[in-house]
Design brief:
heterodimer; A: about 160 residues; four-stranded antiparallel β-sheet; 1 helix; 11 strands; globular; B: about 180 residues; mainly beta
Chain lengths: ~160, ~180
């Protein structure tokens, strides 16, 4: 089981655990969505986090057997829309944890001022990557595939 | 976390609690289409609604094996001949009362608002078939909240004319959906 957390600019946070959501005592949609500076998702041993003020979304994918009515969660995700003010992002992958941090400006890394334009969406060695122009308006998605126990990352044209 | 999904035979009706029995017939038979309504108990819409078939994963009581039954069903849908075509088929054009034109054929396997499950289409979660807005959904793949949203589709089994093996087949149909609390 798991939970997601919204972190706000004033230091407060809103937590939605699976139990509270099931009991309709917590809700992503009905909780404040302004002034979010970070979002975190935890499920089992996996922790996904995105840092950077902006617009966020959270959703889960479920699989239902029409024969038995049995359901299970198959994917859990958090996502942030990339904006005009986003200059670059960095990634930090440690075991089952993945954190992506957005910044408004490029960062000089190791004295090398050249910016590497990459066709791949992300690089997991911690190098700062510029937010490409064509990505703005699209959504950065961090996703945990529960069935396959695998973390995915991708850019989506639409909010999922 | 998840929401309750309810399948019924009428809009807002009692939930279907047993396996859907598509019936039996000789080779070359199109079994009666099953009308299925779907709704959910979430307070918000569910999105990304898709369908696919998979091997039966409960207590198997067919005459071959769950894996073989699925492979056969997929092969029926793959066949591009009049004698060999069949399989599990969907017609999602509820808005026009499920016209014949929206059922797949061996020469038109993905008509508008319809499909036959086959290799690469509805044969696993990656290739799942999106619920059409013609089913009564708010938009493709989106089912609104409510006790009687009137979202429905028809499904049927077509037995190929050249099928020569009798016996009971079983398979599972899965639905995928996304939800935000």
């Amino acid at each position: 089981m798991g939970k997601w957390t919204k972190f706000y600019a004033n230091g407060s946070r809103y937590v939605g655990t699976d139990e509270e959501i099931a009991a309709q005592k917590a809700s992503w949609i009905n909780s404040p969505s302004q002034n979010i500076v970070a979002v975190e998702l935890e499920h089992n041993h996996c922790c996904l986090k995105i840092n950077g003020a902006g617009e966020y979304w959270q959703s889960d994918t479920f699989q239902l057997s029409m024969s038995t009515g049995k359901q299970k969660v198959v994917k859990r995700r958090i996502q942030r829309q990339m904006m005009n003010g986003d200059g670059a992002f960095s990634t930090d992958r440690r075991g089952d944890d993945l954190t992506v941090t957005f910044h408004s400006s490029y960062k000089v890394f190791g004295g090398d001022t050249s910016i590497k334009e990459r066709k791949e969406m992300m690089d997991f060695n911690g190098v700062w990557q510029p937010v490409r122009g064509e990505w703005r308006g699209k959504w950065l998605v961090l996703e945990y595939n529960v069935l396959e126990n695998r973390i995915n990352h991708y850019i989506s044209d639409v909010k999922i | 976390m998840s929401v309750g999904i309810i399948f019924s035979t009428t809009n807002g009706g009692s939930a279907i609690t047993d396996d859907v029995d598509h019936g039996s017939g000789n080779n070359g038979t199109t079994l009666g289409a099953q009308l299925v309504y779907v709704r959910h108990t979430g307070v918000n819409s569910i999105t990304g609604v898709k369908f696919y078939i998979a091997a039966y994963d409960e207590s198997y009581s067919g005459d071959a094996s769950a894996i073989d039954d699925l492979a056969e069903l997929i092969a029926w849908g793959d066949d591009s001949t009049a004698l060999g075509f069949g399989g599990f088929q969907l017609n999602m054009n509820a808005a026009s009362s499920f016209p014949d034109a929206n059922w797949p054929t061996y020469s038109s396997k993905s008509p508008s608002y319809g499909a036959v499950c086959r290799t690469g289409v509805g044969d696993n979660s990656t290739n799942a078939i999106t619920l059409s807005s013609q089913s009564g959904a708010t938009s493709d793949g989106v089912i609104q909240a409510g006790t009687s949203p009137n979202v429905r589709f028809k499904c049927r089994i077509v037995i190929p004319s050249n099928e020569d093996t009798t016996g009971i087949r079983q398979f599972n149909q899965y639905m995928l959906y996304n939800y935000t609390s």
